[in-house]
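Journal club prep — side note

Before the paper discussion, L.F. wants everyone to see what a predicted structure for a comparable chain looks like in C-alpha cell form. Sequence:
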Amino acid sequence: MTHDEYIRHDATALAALVRAGEITPLELIEVAMRRLEAVNPAVNAVVYRMDDEARARTAAADRDAVFAGVPFLAKDLQSDYAGHPTSRGSRLLASRVAENDTELVRRVRATGVSVLGKTNTPEFGMLPYTEPALWGPCRNPWALDRTPGGSSGGSAAAVAAGIVPMAGGGDGAGSIRMPASCCGLFGLKPTRGRTPSGPERGESWRGAAIEHVLTRSVRDSAAMLDATHGPEVGSPYRIEPPGRPFSREVGADPGRLRIAWTMEPILGSSVHPDCVDAVAGTVKLLEELGHEVVEDTPRVDGPAFARAFVRMMTGELGAEMEDLTNVLGRRPRRGELEPLTLCLGLVSRALSAGDFAHALRILERTGNAVAAFFTDWDVLVTPTVATPPPAIGGLPPRPIEHLQLRMLGAIGSGRLIRMAGLVDRTADSAFDFTPWTPVFNISGQPAMSVPLHWNADGLPIGVHFVARVGDEATLLRLAGQLERVRPWFDRVPEIGAADE
C-alpha cells in the first residue's frame, strides 16, 4: 500500500481491508512508520515511538476487532501506557515510566489499534497551543509557521499530516476541538464522564477534562466512542447510556432541529472575519437542510467565569505538583518546569481553600445557567476559535511575558506573584483565542468542531456545535448530515497529500 492509497481510507475502512485479508496489520504499520519518518521532522507531532511493541502486539492482534491493525497515536498527557513514559510535555517527567495502563488505554487497545507512539503536548496541557520547552513546537501541516492548536496539537498534526487516521486527545477547555479546527479535522468532546479517567486519576480539572480522539471522519469518532464509553469502578457519574450504538447515529436523519447560533464571544473580546464567515456559511447551510436556525446566545459573566476557571486550573496544578512531589520524593528543581507552570504552581500555594471553593461555585452556577439555555434549543452553533491558526509563538505568554514569569519564579513567593496580578492578567487574556469552548467543559455538555470552512489562505476554520448533556447522538446525526452534503475527507494539506 502506498501512502496515497493509505490516506484515501479512514480507520473504519482500513480495518475492513484487514478483516477481508486485503492487507495485513504489519503492512499498515510500515506505511504509517514510513510516513512518520518522512513528515515528522517538519511537523514535530510525534515525540515518543513504540515501534517494537506495536509490531509485537499487532502480530497477535484480533483481526475481527473494530479497528484491527489501524495505526494509532496516543496523546502524551493523561493516557498511561505501562512500560512507557508519560512526559505530560514536562522536563520534570520526561523519563518517568508508567507502571500500569489507564482504563481508557485498556479499552482503546481492545479495539485492535496499533499504538505507534505518543504525541506532542504543552506542559501539563495548560495552553491552547503546543510549544513545550521539552519537545519544541509542533507545527500545523496546513502551514508550518502556524500552530496546530493545543493541547492535543501533536495528535491533530499527526492525523492531518497523514501519519495515522486517528489519534488520542483530551479536552479540558477545548483541547480536542481547538486542534480539530486548526487542522481541518473532526473533533468530538463527549459528555463529562462518558469516557473513563481512572484508575490512577479522579476527575481531571474537577471533571472539566475528558478524553476521546481526533479523526478525519465522523464514523471513526463514533465507533471509538462505542468502544470506550461507559462507567468504570468508582466512577462518580452514571450517564444515561445511548439508546443504540453511536455508530448508527452517523447515518441517521437528524430531523428538524431547533438550532441557536451566535458569533458573540462568551469570554473574549473579538472574532476574526474568517471565523464569522465560517458560521455565516454554516447557518445558511443548516437553513437549506430544513433546520430552524435563530440567533441567540447563553448569558455568561465572561470575566468572572474566566478568573474562576483560571483559579480552578491553578489549584488543580498545585494539587498535581503535590502529587508529583510525593511520587518523586522531592520538589521540582529549577529548570524542570516552564516559567508559567512554575509561577502558577507557586500561586496555588497562596490561594486559600475559600478562594478555590468560591471559584468552583462560580463555575457551577455558570454551568447550570448554560445548561438551562438548552431547554429551548437542541444545538448551539458558534465559531470553534476566534481566529485562524495563529503563528508559532503568536499566543501569550510572549517573550517579554516569559521574562517576567522567570523573574517572578526566581522570587519564589506565591503571595508576591499573586499580588503582582499574574492570575488575573492570565485570566483576562487566557480565552481570547477560545471564547466559547471552556464554558461547555464546565457545563459538561458534548460539543464538536466540524471542518466546514477554509479561508482564502487555505487554512481550516472549524465550526463549533454543542448539545444537551448526554446527547452525543444528536451531534453525531447532525455531523453525519453535514459530512454528506459538504464533505471534507478529501481535503488534505500538501504535506499530507504527497506520496513517499
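L.F.'s comment for the group: The mean pLDDT is 92. Keep this in mind when we get to the figures.
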